[in-house]
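Transcription factor MYC/MYB N-terminal domain-containing protein: structure tokens wanted.
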Amino acid sequence: MASQLQQALRSLCCNTPWKYAVFWKLTHRARMMLTWEDAYYDNNGFPGKKSSGSTAGNLYDGHYSNNHLGVAVAKMSYHVYSLGEGYDI
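Answer:
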């Protein structure tokens, strides 16, 4: 059974034009870190997939090797950001 967070992320993708939703959380360490908590990816319309969506737990199973958005969402899960860091424009 999906968690409330997974259901909320899925709802964002099913009720809007969004294809994926990611929930990030602040982790208290020596510095505040923004880390991946969970995600939902709407792979509806992707050939070869029987399900209409994926959660973070099954984004890594290799089914997205030919799907650029699926790969990007899966790779995003490895990123950790230090609070206050950003790009200078």
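Confidence is low (pLDDT under 50) at residues 47-52. The first strand starts at residue 20 and ends at 28.

Cheers.
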